[in-house]
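Teaching note: in complex prediction, the entire set of molecules is handled at once rather than each chain in isolation. The prompt given to students was simply: 'Predict the structure of this complex.' The entities are:
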Amino acid sequence: MFSSIRSLWIVFKHMFRRRETVQYPDEKPYLAPRYRGRIILSKDPDGGERCVACYLCAVVCPVDCIALQATEDEHGRRYPDFFRINFSRCIYCGLCEEACPTYAIQLTPDFEMAEYHRNNLVYEKEHLQIEGQGKYPGYHFYKVAGLKIGGKDKGEAENEDKPVDIRSLLP
Amino acid sequence: MVTAFYIASAVAIAATIMVITRTQAVHALLYLIVSLLSVAVIFFCLGAPFVAVLEIIIYAGAIMVLFVFVMMLLNLGPESAQQERQWLNPRMYIGPAVLSLVLLIELVYMINQGLATVYSPTVVAPREVGISLFTTYVLGVELAGMLLLAGLVGAFHLGRRRERREHGTDTTTQAADTESSPNVTVGEDS
Amino acid sequence: MSFQGSALLAILVLLGVFTAAPGLIWLERRLLGLWQDRYGPNRVGPFGIFQVIADMVKILTKEDWIPPFADRPVFVIAPGVIIFTVLMSFAVVPVAPGIGVVDLNVGLLFFLAMSSLGAYSVVLGGWSSNNKYSLLGGLRAASQMISYEVFMGLSLMGVVVMTGSFSMWDIVMAQQGMWNIVPQFFGFVVFLVAGVAEMHRLPFDIPEAESEIVAGFHSEYSGLKFGMFFVGEYLGMVVVAAITTTLFLGGWHGPWLPPIVWFGLKTFALVCFFILLRAGLPRPRFDQLMSYGWKVMLPLALANLLVTGAIVVL
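The expected output is the structure of the full assembly:
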């Protein structure tokens, strides 16, 4: 009986508390840079696309929402012919970002992607590709990994280290 | 008021006929409630608002709810309606109809004896009802009180829990249980 | 007192009541929000007040579906009963000197009669839906309302003994000097609890307990019929608040302000208190409800009546 009255009094006192609700559309909440929201494809500092169409993201995706088709340009550089993410399936787990060897695919702190039609949730490459470098500014995959061009293998140019021998224990 | 009286009477009679002829029990009960309500209106017209309201509270409000409650528990299906329909054939009417006819004749005879008075209601206030209950009819009130007390004791006796262990039994029955049940060691001295 | 039971007044009271009910829905949601550290509806119009209209439009345009397995006539009658009885209860409420529908010399009993008839709405609604959850809700409602009616009436008898009249107007006039809540405090408490249980408002909303029996007696109702149950519940809250104001809180009596304002303020405060009950208390189990009623409330009401009677006689 008294505990009931006490709980009534406690609830009544909450009248003078601050309200916890965030008035969302008027007042945007802070989202951390590592928030896992809408997926984008980033570009090199040179403006070339980072994606090398290795399929790792598509393989690692637990809900199979990424679809792409690799192709090559005239220099033998792989790039995706199309790159498609079905956001009605995506669970924003971020595994694709972890799997990506070139930091091309990244998750951004943006979640406002509601649509009236489900088909609009399928994002094509032109929707995913951004003109910036995303979370890793200045990173250029081929500057780090080296590049084989006609008549020159990896690590054979001046001022270029040999590639790491991944089958050896020696440094 | 006289018009209201006749309307209410007509409703009461119609509703009561419907009570008898319904095959579905809950529908019959609904008509019975309507009948009781119209009887209450009749009381009101005749200048007994206290009795009218008590009629609604006690009969329509409490007893009929209990009836409906029981009907809901019984879960009467279509087959019981079928049975009712069989019971409602005209052959079954004869007995009650004859008896009612006797009553009707008696009633008409009584009215014709000159007992019927002119319709001139005097409003009986609750205060007067109370005063007459506790002076003129005090014996009746006391007897009714005794009856109710007996009913209360009986209900208590029937509703008492005994020799049954559930979690949530009160401490007294639990104590009785532990003493009576052999497989529970009560104390060191046993 | 110049009492005018005109049809105009009746219509005015009816209109006031009917505008109060949807406003209450908004009020309840806002107040619950306030007490739970959130906002409640605040988007539609200033302070979200037009949420009421939006809700009305929604509920009126919904499909009014009668299940094929339901008992059709009873199913249709049931929601009407609650509206009817609750509105009839307003007839005996004295709002202010000269404002009120009727002055019955059995006004208090009339209120009790109407509230006891209100049980049919729930019971029949539950039965006619032909659904086991609804049936359980109806059964619970029947037993709850019958048992709480008993001491609801008994708790009021103390007031009647003190005043010597069943008329609501006489009772208000008798509270000129001191409100009945002071000498009849236990009666007040018992009546408040019984009133909440009788209108099956939230701590005692066992007939519709969503977490146990879906929505209880109105599981199968939709559209306007559901709306009638809903409005009936809110109107019931207003009725209980208004009757409590009349019987225990001195009706329209109060200093400085005009009587009708005092009546409104007291009723409003009680309605807010009912909403606080909803915000603050958990729903009891059914057997707890019953034993609470019969083992605590009934003896309390009887003792209150006994002591009041003794004091009045001496």
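Point out the following to students. The mean pLDDT of chain C is 82. Chain C has eleven helices and no strands.
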